[in-house]
């Protein structure tokens, strides 16, 4: 599991400004539930001064996504729109006294939502769905424009860092070559003409070994067994219910059932499963199982 700062924990357990903002005149929607994270940011802007008077959010995601959204709403209140547009994803992370590297994409999602909400208020068209053919990571629907923007803004140098900040490359790994090309392009821009950039450090694409269903289930059970001691410390437990393709359905038990940290717990289990199996999988609660299969 990842180490979270006290401020991240505080904003997760006691999120500020969560819920609907009925008087919102600027709304930004980013992400998707299918990809694991989704955020709606709502702003109430004074039309005479362009000052953000109130901000609220609704989010689906892990503890870092909730904390980042909560922090963002606190940061922007009282700012003018032009001031808010200067906020970077690093500013959001710094406000929370840092985020685990693997969770920096949550702060990027917050920045994207802010830009979308301001564009909506101004009557401008904002979209993270760029021209056809620009999609780099099909697993998480991440396009080249977003990757380039994040690489430049955060001075990223490796495929692994791009995955931490955007999720791109965290699935089947078939997009790693495309990410490396973007990194090389930005690297060349930084170096300037006549200078030779050092090679981009990349992570080797992981190819999931072929396993029978029984072998996969056995490995999944072993992974859950390694997680149980951590859950047991909080009087919780988890059991495997079913495996359907890349969907792994589990039942959280004891104190984990209905806990406020349920989404974060499932996210942590999913990360462990991806690492153990070497493939992109989704860990879902048993309530998400198709009725015909339950």
Tell me what you see in this structure:
- With 294 residues, the chain is α+β, with helices and mostly antiparallel strands.
- The chain has three domains: 6-121, Sufe protein. Chain: A; 135-191, BFD-like [2Fe-2S]-binding domain (Arc Repressor Mutant, subunit A); 213-293, GMP Synthetase, Chain A, domain 3.
- It has ten helices and eight strands.
- The protein is globular and about 65 Å long.
- The model is unreliable at 129-133 and 194-207 (pLDDT under 50).
SSE blueprint and pairings:
Blueprint: H1 6-13, E1 26-32, E2 37-45, E3 52-60, H2 63-76, H3 81-84, H4 89-95, H5 104-121, E4 135-137, E5 142-143, H6 144-154, H7 159-166, H8 176-191, H9 213-232, E6 236-244, E7 247-254, H10 262-277, E8 282-285
Parallel strand pairs: 7-8
Antiparallel strand pairs: 1-2, 2-3, 4-5, 6-7
What is the CATH class designation of the largest domain?
Alpha Beta
| Low-confidence sequence ranges | 129-133, 194-207
The dominant shape is globular
**SS strand fraction:** 15-25%
The figure for the number of domains is: 3
Mean pLDDT: 83
CATH architecture of the largest domain: Alpha-Beta Complex
Structural class: alpha+beta
From the N-terminal CA to the C-terminal CA, the straight-line distance is 30 Å
Q: Give the strand tally.
A: 8
**Largest β sheet strand count, sense and barrel closure:** 3 strands, antiparallel
Q: Encode the helix/strand succession as letters.
A: HEEEHHHHEEHHHHEEHE
- Continuous helix count: 10
| Strand adjacency order, main sheet | 1-2-3
> How much helicity do the residues have?
40-55%
Looking at the structure, the CATH topology of the largest domain is Sufe protein. Chain: A
Radius of gyration equals 20 Å
């Amino acid at each position: 599991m990842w180490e979270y700062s006290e401020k991240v924990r505080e904003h997760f357990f006691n999120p500020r400004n969560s819920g609907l903002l009925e008087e919102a005149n600027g709304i930004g929607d980013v992400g998707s539930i299918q990809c694991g994270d989704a955020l709606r940011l709502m702003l109430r802007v004074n039309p005479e001064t362009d000052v953000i008077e109130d901000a609220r959010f609704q989010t689906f995601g892990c503890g870092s996504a909730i904390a980042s959204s909560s922090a963002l709403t606190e940061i922007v209140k009282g700012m003018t729109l032009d001031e808010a547009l200067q906020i970077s994803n690093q500013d959001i992370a710094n406000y929370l006294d840092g985020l685990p590297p693997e969770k920096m994409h949550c702060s990027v999602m917050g920045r994207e939502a802010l830009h979308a909400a301001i564009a909506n208020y101004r009557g401008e068209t904002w979209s993270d769905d760029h021209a056809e053919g620009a999609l780099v990571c099909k697993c998480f629907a991440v396009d080249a424009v977003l990757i380039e923007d994040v690489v430049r803004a955060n001075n990223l140098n490796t495929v692994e860092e791009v995955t931490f900040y955007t999720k791109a490359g965290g699935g089947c790994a078939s997009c790693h070559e495309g990410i490396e090309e973007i990194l090389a392009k930005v690297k060349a821009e930084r170096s300037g003409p006549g200078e030779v950039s050092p090679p981009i450090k990349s992570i080797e694409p992981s190819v999931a070994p072929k396993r029978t269903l029984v072998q996969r289930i056995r490995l999944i059970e072993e992974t859950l067994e390694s997680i149980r001691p951590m859950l047991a410390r909080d009087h919780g437990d988890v059991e495997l219910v079913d495996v359907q393709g890349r969907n792994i359905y589990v039942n959280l038990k004891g104190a984990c059932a209905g806990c406020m940290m349920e989404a974060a717990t499932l996210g942590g289990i999913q990360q462990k499963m991806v690492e153990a199996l070497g493939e992109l999988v989704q860990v879902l609660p048993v309530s998400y199982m198709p009725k015909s299969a339950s």
